[in-house]
Amino acid sequence: MTRHLLLAAAAAIALPVTASAQSMPTVPDAEVSALRDAAMQDEYAWDITEGLTTEIGPRLAGTEAEARARDWAVAKLTEMGFSNVGIETYDMPVWVRGEEHGAITTPFPQPLTLTALGNSAATPPEGIEAEVVYFASFAEMMAAPADAIEGKIVFVSHDMQPTQDGSGYGNYGAARFVGPSFASQKGAVAMVIKSIGTDNHRTPHTGGTNFAQGVEPIPAAALSVPDAEQLERVFERGQPVRMTLTLTPRQTGMHESGNVVAEVPGSDPEAGIVLIACHLDSWDLGTGAIDDGAGCGIIAAAAKHIMDAGQPRRTIRILFAGAEEVGVFGGDAYYEAHKGEKIVLVSESDFGADRVWKVTSVLPESAEPVGARVAAALAPIGVVGAQGSAHGGADVGMFARNGVAVIDLHQDGTRYFDLHHTPDDTLDKVDPEQLRQNVAAWTAMLAVVANAPEEIGPVTHAE
Amino acid sequence: MTRHLLLAAAAAIALPVTASAQSMPTVPDAEVSALRDAAMQDEYAWDITEGLTTEIGPRLAGTEAEARARDWAVAKLTEMGFSNVGIETYDMPVWVRGEEHGAITTPFPQPLTLTALGNSAATPPEGIEAEVVYFASFAEMMAAPADAIEGKIVFVSHDMQPTQDGSGYGNYGAARFVGPSFASQKGAVAMVIKSIGTDNHRTPHTGGTNFAQGVEPIPAAALSVPDAEQLERVFERGQPVRMTLTLTPRQTGMHESGNVVAEVPGSDPEAGIVLIACHLDSWDLGTGAIDDGAGCGIIAAAAKHIMDAGQPRRTIRILFAGAEEVGVFGGDAYYEAHKGEKIVLVSESDFGADRVWKVTSVLPESAEPVGARVAAALAPIGVVGAQGSAHGGADVGMFARNGVAVIDLHQDGTRYFDLHHTPDDTLDKVDPEQLRQNVAAWTAMLAVVANAPEEIGPVTHAE
């Protein structure tokens, strides 16, 4: 009950902001409000998240587990009554994890908990042993001369803090995204980073790293946050530090992956398609509950509520994208195959399962009232209608970057980077009450967007 | 500041209880209060906990890491100015961890995070594969006929909840302490338990298991709590479940371990010795910050504050016991070697680093005023002086069971079993403010006990 009071208070504060931005207040549509409130009792999103994480578990892109997840999703979406359920395949390069061990050997011998980053090179099976050079930040590593790094294992730390909007991932994440490539260019024999995470558990955060063309891949791993802090304390003692590292991942060549699609057909083919997305693949360490089983649960549940309320004007197309984590292969393949269709708006749920706290949009001028009606419909469940851009998630990003309208329902990311890409991304981390608020927000948004009488054309002033 | 108000409120409520129990209120001694309050600024306990966990890390009993910890402790206690610092060795059987993997193979193939229990037998190197039989509690397993278990892997779950006093460990822990022995007797090929823990992280809780004489040891492991919940959900589907299990630990024979001792010599040899203990060894998965690096930090810091305030009447002897986790080999060896000495009171810190919330004692009638003065000195820092027995920790338990007086300073265990015996038992889990409150409580207790003019004789009405 406290939560509801808080949400109501947030809504009361939020509304005037939206209203002033839109110059006059918009009253929520009664039918939309009724659908939204009914969706607050949703069970579909939990059913999908629980089922996918339990019956499939981890589903690394391009593996047979991801293939089982596609079959599972086709069966589930068919059972729910969606139309045109199917799989669209593509091939992609597949990297798989091997053994992973590390230990400080000097001056204080002890094991370290770490995990290989996606695309990491392998060490010899017996591992390597080398001096470690410590940088408190990625910027400090970049500023260091090559002779401080050559022949050594680079250790880069950071001081990432939790934030509601997840800002910080782009900045602190650079050490993971491109750090090993730069370390390799400076002659490092391997790189370990403090996990790009905000927790304090011995559960390291994996994630992809990318080696620039022509750069020799090196072994690259993330230490759990407590292990990275331990290594920092060891460096504080001022003595030379050496460590062993054994990583035996491998690139296995090209394998099949695929997207799963389904539809709620609209009554007006000329009105265009609303494309809503999540991703079906997960990293291999956890069961992908918050990243992104819950996202698939949320969008499919919302589409189900709209379908059951009667045929919408616009077709709602569900995309459970494959292979997002390892390079957005599914989203990119989907864009190439479908960019010629009349997709008028995109939106994605891929930031956990905690509540929606903000909505932003990029819409053509003619459709700005649609955005105002969405914001009005979301305010009663504690969502701020805010200025600011919208980008879609990774899997619909190509559409957004090419002029398709976007609505972003921003999820609370305060604890997202406690769990992101770790073994700890499991079902117990999903709060059923917040999951339902997501479904209610998506149901309200879809009710407005799919039935809007306005034309939703391309955004000609796209960034 | 809020904490201080809460503590003051707790003290205000607590005092009358103690007072009524003792029939008249006791005013805290001013010198004791001054020592206690000065100890609220303690840095020694953190210094020891940080140093031991960083410079040694995990220190499994009977290994060279535990030997390094002994040398570290001798150097530290000597540097702090204690007298008669030394090591007393003994031999003990040593079990060491090997590879550990598990996976559901049917009906939903996926890996499981688990860790071997101490004394677990090994599987063949290639592992075993068998049907799993599920029991929601240890009691249900015990009630099951052998033919439901024979040839299978037994999975026993539980619903342990966090409690302030740690009650529940004895009850729920039975599945770990003796479960595998009974499962072996019923013909199980292996046993997996839900970790005896209250967290929801992929960090399984190890701990010793004991096979009764004549019972063939079987492979035995703890699943992390999220993995156990996952396996329960798999069983809810009603299909036969099979899993693989690979554990390659081994018994390595007899090895040397040892206790580290140090003293603050008292002025009156006739007044007897106050023996305060912690344990120096840790399980191998974490760095043993809360179990029991902090305990060693707390007792040594408190003894240091007493020593620096002037020579006490009674000798305070510090025991950093070895090999507690794996069978109290250090405590038992210490008792055998020193049971003839005039040890008049024992106390141990071995329940984490969170604040002391209750004090209980078992004292001879002649020394009951000592207990009342201790309770009075602790009330202002939020400690309830309560009725109820005192047992000492494991390492001084033999003294307590043989008539030596005991004072227990009970630590708040609400989050202890989130961390206990897991990889997550690391320094970051220690709250420096609560650690200092422990030191203050121990300093006050020692100030009263070591200087009490009363005779502290044996407890003739011992349980």
Automatic annotation (TrEMBL), chains A, B:
Q: Which residue positions does the secretion signal occupy? A: 1-21
Q: Molecular function (GO) terms listed?
A: carboxypeptidase activity; metal ion binding; metallodipeptidase activity
Look up keyword Protease and say if it applies. Answer: yes
Which UniProt keyword terms apply here? Carboxypeptidase, Endoplasmic reticulum, Glycoprotein, Golgi apparatus, Hydrolase, Lysosome, Metal-binding, Metalloprotease, Protease, Secreted, Signal, Zinc, Zymogen
Read off the SUPFAM superfamilies from this record: Zn-dependent exopeptidases
Cellular component per GO? extracellular region; lysosome
Q: Name one GO biological process term.
A: proteolysis
Which top-level group of life is the source organism from?
Bacteria
Q: Show where the Peptidase M28 domain sits.
A: 259-442
Give the quaternary structure.
Homodimer. The monomeric form is inactive while the homodimer is active.
Identify this protein by name.
Carboxypeptidase Q
Q: Which organism is it from?
A: Stakelama tenebrarum
